[in-house]
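Incident log, support desk, overnight shift.

02:14 A customer reports that sequence design results differ from what the structure should imply. Their input is reproduced verbatim below. On-call engineer (initials T.W.) acknowledged and began investigating.
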């Protein structure tokens, strides 16, 4: 999916976004990207962040189940019990609120100068528009499973400096995340506005990662690529609650270790 987004990111934004990360080059630890920075602060303002702590293990289980069901069944004389049908709750679905301005929230939290704030809003707006165009035919819009899937695909690509997952792999991951959300009844009490903010934040994080990563690849700048690898790693830890090395591609599928 992020190939689609990159087509819509303004060249100016891709070039200048490196300014946001210059402070990390001299950092001694990954805490430079942690909760004491704008990334952690803006992520923590949404009530949904704490509710999502159990999503990783549930998604990992659903991915393993999906992988097992895709394998040819061994011949047996015994009759196996049918797999129970998943109950659809749509806990990840939200009703959009036109007053939500995630671009402003991100720019205020992450940008230090007026130019940086304007740049972040520009990247967010371009990323969001491109995401919506890609998500609509997949029916991912208005569901935080979509934003989480987009973030995961972007973050793992940047962190591992690897090819993006295939459309089939991304769809399998989305299905696993969506099923995981339906196993989290706590989501039912989260407001539509918080869900929308969270979904938008995932898209925004993905867009910033991809913009910086693309700049690093185009300019062949190892320091930029290293900075964005660090940022991707911290965001994976914040969002998915796991070591970023646990998120990888195996046999053409996204896996969680």
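02:41 Re-run completed on a clean worker. Output:
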């Amino acid at each position: 999916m992020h190939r689609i987004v990159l087509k819509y990111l303004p060249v100016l934004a891709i070039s200048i976004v490196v300014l946001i990360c210059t402070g990390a080059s001299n950092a001694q630890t990954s805490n430079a990207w942690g909760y004491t920075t704008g990334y952690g602060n803006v992520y923590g303002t949404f009530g949904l962040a704490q509710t999502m702590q159990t999503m990783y293990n549930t998604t990992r289980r659903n991915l393993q189940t999906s992988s097992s069901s895709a394998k040819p069944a061994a011949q047996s004389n015994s009759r196996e019990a049918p797999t129970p049908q998943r109950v659809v709750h749509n806990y990840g679905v939200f009703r959009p609120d036109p007053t939500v301005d995630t671009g402003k929230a991100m720019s205020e939290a992450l940008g230090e100068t007026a130019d940086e704030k304007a740049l972040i809003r520009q990247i967010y707006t371009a990323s969001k528009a491109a995401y919506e165009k890609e998500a609509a035919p997949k029916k991912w819009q208005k569901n935080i499973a979509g934003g989480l899937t987009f973030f995961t695909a972007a973050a793992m690509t940047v962190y591992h400096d690897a090819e993006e997952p295939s459309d089939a792999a991304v769809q399998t991951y989305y299905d696993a995340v969506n099923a995981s959300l339906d196993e989290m009844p706590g989501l039912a009490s989260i407001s539509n506005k918080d869900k929308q903010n969270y979904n938008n934040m995932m898209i925004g994080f993905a867009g910033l990662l991809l913009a910086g990563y693309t700049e690093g690849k185009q300019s062949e700048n190892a320091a930029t690529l290293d900075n964005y690898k660090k940022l991707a790693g911290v965001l994976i830890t914040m969002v998915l609650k796991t070591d970023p090395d646990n998120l990888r591609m195996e046999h053409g599928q996204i896996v969680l270790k």
